[in-house]
Amino acid sequence: MTNERGKKALERLRKIKPFVQASLSITKKRCGNPRCRCAQEGPLHEVALLTWKQENRTRTLYVPIELRQEVVRWVQEGKLLKRLMVEVSQAQREFLTSKKKSRRSNKG
Ligand SMILES: [Zn+2]
């Protein structure tokens, strides 16, 4: 039971692909090898990190370069999922509100 708005959001929700609720950040780091060029003049190494909050702590996870584009898609899908959850919740509240109104008008 839902309305048009809810149907649309649920349709998209059914097509959801792998997702992660986190963000991807690119930072520059020294690798720690004293003989590497980054120890002296650079450039520093680009490192991709997945970050998210868990139990009020910020957690991070290293993302290998070959998976970077894939993980970008997971993050985008995670944001879409969040929007769709908000959308369906809103649609269901509207649905309830419209029922209340129609019942009132049926009674006259
Ligand atoms: Zn280095």
Please write out the topology.
Layout: H1 4-14, E1 23-29, H2 37-40, E2 45-54, E3 57-63, H3 68-107
Antiparallel strand pairs: 1-2, 2-3
Helix pairs in contact: 1-3
Zinc ion is lined by residues 30-31, 33, 36, 38, 45.
Explain what the structure shows.
With 108 residues, this protein is α+β, with helices and mostly antiparallel strands. Helix content is 51%, strand content 22%. A 3-stranded antiparallel β-sheet has the order 1-2-3, with helices on one face. Strand 2 and strand 3 form a beta hairpin. It is elongated, with a radius of gyration of 23 Å. The chain starts with a helix and ends with a helix. The model has no long low-confidence stretch (mean pLDDT 93). The structure holds zinc ion. The site of zinc ion (ZN) has 6 residues, from loops.
